[in-house]
Amino acid sequence: MAEIRRLDAGGQTIAVRKDLRVPMRDGVTLAADVYSGVEDKPRPALVALSPYGKELQALALTMPPQRRPSPMWDGCIEAGDIASVVAEDYAHVIGDLRGSGASDGEHIGNYNAGGVPLGQDAYDFIEWVADQPWCDGNVGMIGISYFGSMQVIAAAERPPSLKAIFVSGGHYDFYETTYHGGVLWFMPRAAREGRGGDSGWAFTDRIKSRMLETYSPEEIEKRVAERLADPDVAAWPNLVHLLHYPTNHEAWFDIVLNEFDGEWYEERNPVNLARNIEIPVYLQIDQGRGWTVDGHIELFETLSGPKKLVIGSYPPMQSRPWVEEHDAMFRWYEYWLKGVDNGIMDEPAVSVFVEGSREVVTAEQWPPKDVEYRSLYLRPRRTLSPEPELMGPEHAAPDGFYQAPLTVTDQVEILTWSTAPFEDPTELIGSGAAHLFAEIDQPDTNFILRLWDAAPNGSRQLITTGFLKASHRELDERTTEGNPYHPHTRAVPVEPGAIEEYVVRLYPFAATFRPGHRLVVELSNDEPLADEHNALLPPDAFHLPVGRPVTHKIYRDALHPSRLVLPFTTRNSE
């Protein structure tokens, strides 16, 4: 029996059980801390699991919540507000995954792909918690991001005592988490290395590369050479260093070495695993980082049991320590863990905050309203119009820009097109597409699009984004109007000088453009180094820049109808 300590926090006395050892079926033990009320009685438990370290999560007791751009914001303090959990009469159980923190065992690959499945460990951990005298046998889970993904992985294993989960800001399709439209995203580096506003994993010498464990040294050398042949990778010092010294950060090495989707990512993809989930699932995500919104919708549509989807308002990053959504979470668990009929399941399954109008629309499905996909065409003089261009390319000459690599410039070139001011409130909810007819003078580039709501006073807010690596332009059978999908299973180099149609997925969003506001779309092949949106993100939340000089010509004429395809709503919500 672990010694029970007491501490005062949040105006209450909390009982603390430190460094409990939780046995796994293969003999490995994981470390856990338990926080609860001091009254000696069983109560429901909320379990948090990650490799970020249980001691870091304890800062929720002493650090006021920090918002970006605070330099004290730490992206890994994600297990929830301990004092609030205890005040609601739950046991808050925070565990270190195998190979991290104070736990035993080896952790092979990101989310343990290739080693002992983390879902298996989560099953054993949850059933151990349910069997403790301080737990009444009813278990839920808590935490965002990695903690949120672990909830889905755990629920797919169907531990009998796990009655429901509440997931906020998780990552699901692991390829789409790390490569957006085929463009490498740096935030996974931050979460593992401990940089860019993150403490990172609680590393031990038992975290290992799946690639190094799987392939021979000769095969690794061959794959590293192939990756370094990509000019984008070869121009980025951190990646060159990583590929030569992979044991420094093994999980990041695995991601960088696997630039295509397929079995390596799909084996334990939570979206695939979610088909096994039957317990109730609550999904919550804020707008502003479109790939996470996309993932929550995909997961919601995969689930077959009781479910909720709540898409909240901008900005995209929650506080650290994480404290938002706790009221909704406690209401969810009051119903599913405590048996209190509070009416939550009588409410619509989908709730969406609409930027601009600041209204909340509800329905039983996504999108919450019927939509009609309409086109806004890129036109001369950097305008967007519902009417297509009538002149051919000999008269409507293409727009264009030349982007030097960031090794020689700090200037990111941006093309901009804008609508006229809207005369009436105009609501859009759903995903979208950008059809770009483009010519480049290199075998590859990035297409990065950002859509803004620009107010008459000059202020603006990001609405959605889209990313596509030109060599990943192939579409697959899931593609429909306004809803393109790319398989990302191979690269097809571009023929320099050829005009190609690139269809860029615009991540799901919900916005009303008020009278006098404009819709503005920006196109570049690198991200701006600093602007009003990026200041809200962690410093490492950017994408791998293009490592070669590229000239881009964007054709938008009668033969090349470059356009946005957007989801205009057509009826009121239920």
From TrEMBL:
Positions of the Xaa-Pro dipeptidyl-peptidase C-terminal domain: 330-565
GO molecular function, one term: hydrolase activity
Keyword Hydrolase among UniProt keywords: yes
Domain of life: Bacteria
Alphabetically ordered keywords of this record: Hydrolase
PANTHER family (alphabetical): COCE_NOND FAMILY, PUTATIVE (AFU_ORTHOLOGUE AFUA_7G00600)-RELATED, PEPTIDASE S9 PROLYL OLIGOPEPTIDASE
NCBIfam families associated with the record: CocE_NonD (TIGR00976)
Protein name: CocE/NonD family hydrolase
Species, as recorded: Blastococcus jejuensis
